[in-house]
Amino acid sequence: MSATKISELSWFHDFPPFFTLQPNLDTRRKQLDAWCSLILDYCRMKKVCTFDVNDASKFPPFFNAKINRQLDSNFIQVILEELRSRGNIEWEDKSKRRCLVLWKSPEEWAKTIYQWITAHGMNGTVCTFYELLHGDDTRSAEFHNIDPQLFRRVLGELEKRGQATVFADNGTEGVKFS
Amino acid sequence: MGNVFGKKSKPPKQPAITEQDRAILQLKQQRDRLTQNRRRIESQLEREREVAKQLLKNGQKDRALLLLRKKKMLESQLDKSENILENVERMTHDLEFAQVQVDVVHSLKQGNDALKKMNELLKLEDIEKLMEDSREAVEYQNEVSNLLSGGLSRVDEEDVEAELDELIRREESADISRLPDIPHHREQRPVVSPTRTKQRVAIEAD
């Protein structure tokens, strides 16, 4: 099902040379551009917020069974590095195995969440992470069911702006919005 | 509000966390747990209904009955947790609302204090004197403007009348030169137009 969706995102996913790193620098630039936008589009479509290098071979955009092609780990590293330099991924650990996928920058996420909070008159109230991420009220919100790691990252952004305070009580965390 | 347990004081001020906030967080956590519990039971019920149907189809009536009994038990549990959830939610709302009320009372008190301070700045005698002074000033101002406007309007009046006279005179002379020729008695000329012009002139002169 996801494969058909990917082919809707880009036609070159069915184009065999797309899966080989191009030697010509100009071509390679275009190829990397295309890969980056394909990955971000895919993650946005599927609401994928994290990526684990160990699972790279299972990540649908990285292979295409129809034309029997898949990316080698070297090419994947090149793409990830490209995405990182564009600020679209952030490594979560030093060994660069896990990363956040930011098809929306933390600043944009912070704005989205704060706008939602304001629209629902929840300024000054305390919320649990669970109710914001999985509650019935946020079902139509864009940040519903996003990855908790990403959510933490965005809350950090809101804290920097003084729009939220994250605090813990009895081990479970909550956030208070201003 | 008294007890403020702000965690960090970074340059942009983050909202401070109070004891009440912690209490609310606890309640909301409890609510989340109950919600999770409800979701779990609901999905379990759904599954069990499916299985019972399947069992009936296979003719395993006893097991289906057993399953339905379990389902009944789960349903009553669901009811109970629903009630608890309601209690918890009501408590949370009460707490949040009480906090709002405390805030309101606090700001009303502050407003009252500020008002008192402002009132202390104003002494009644001072105000009376001030009002007296300003009344005198207004009267004086009125007199001055009366004098001025009276003089001005008389001059204006004369100007306007002179202009009006001038206008009427000019209109009349124009009227005379525009009169039609005396009609020949044989032709039945329409006599309407000159009268009309005259009427128009009269209106304009008015």
Question: Could you characterize what this model shows?
Answer:
- The complex is a heterodimer of chains A (178) and B (206).
- In chain A, 43% of the residues lie in helices and 16% in strands.
- In chain A, the strands form 3 sheets. Chain A has a 3-stranded antiparallel β-sheet. In chain A, strands 6-8-7 form a 3-stranded antiparallel β-sheet. Chain A has a two-stranded antiparallel ribbon with strand order 2-3.
- Chain A has 2 domains: 2-101, Arc Repressor Mutant, subunit A (Orthogonal Bundle), CATH 1.10.10.570; 106-177, Winged helix-like DNA-binding domain superfamily/Winged helix DNA-binding domain (Arc Repressor Mutant, subunit A, Orthogonal Bundle).
- The model of chain A has no long low-confidence stretch (mean pLDDT 89).
- In chain A, α4 (106-119) packs across α6.
- Chain A is of the alpha+beta class and 178 residues long.
- With 206 residues, chain B is mainly α.
- Chain B folds into 2 domains: 19-121; 124-180 and 193-206.
- Chain B has 4 helices and no strands.
- Chain B has helices spanning 19-58, 61-121, 124-177, 192-205.
- In chain B, α1 packs antiparallel against α2.
- Chain B is elongated and about 125 Å long.
- The mean pLDDT of chain B is 83.
- Chain A: Keywords: Cytoplasm, Protein transport, Transport.
- Chain A: One of its GO terms (molecular function) is structural molecule activity.
- Chain A: Its main location: cytoplasm.
Q: With helices defined by DSSP (H or I, 4 residues minimum), what is the helix count of chain A?
A: 6
Query: What is the overall shape of chain B?
Result: elongated
Approximately how much beta-strand content do the residues of chain B carry?
A: under 5%
Q: Any idea what the shape of chain A is?
A: elongated
Low-pLDDT parts of chain A are none
Low-pLDDT ranges of chain B: none
Strand order of the largest sheet of chain A: 1-5-4
Q: Considering the protein shown, what is the CATH homologous superfamily of the largest domain in chain A?
A: "Winged helix" DNA-binding domain. Chain C. Domain 1
Q: Roughly how many Å is the radius of gyration of chain A?
A: 19 Å
Terminal Cα span of chain B: 77 Å
**Largest sheet composition of chain A:** 3 strands, antiparallel
Provide the number of structural domains of chain B: 2
Biggest sheet details of chain B: none
Number of strands of chain B: 0
First-residue to last-residue Cα separation of chain A? 42 Å
CATH class of the largest domain in chain A: Mainly Alpha
Count the beta strands of chain A.
Answer: 8
Total number of helices of chain B: 4
The helix/strand series of chain B, from N terminus to C terminus, equals HHHH
Return the average pLDDT of chain B rounded to an integer. 83
Protein name (chain A): Vacuolar protein-sorting-associated protein 25
Subcellular location (chain A): Cytoplasm
Organism (chain A): Adineta ricciae
InterPro entries (chain A): ESCRT-II_cplx_Vps25-sub, ESCRT-II_cplx_Vps25-sub_N, WH-like_DNA-bd_sf, WH_DNA-bd_sf
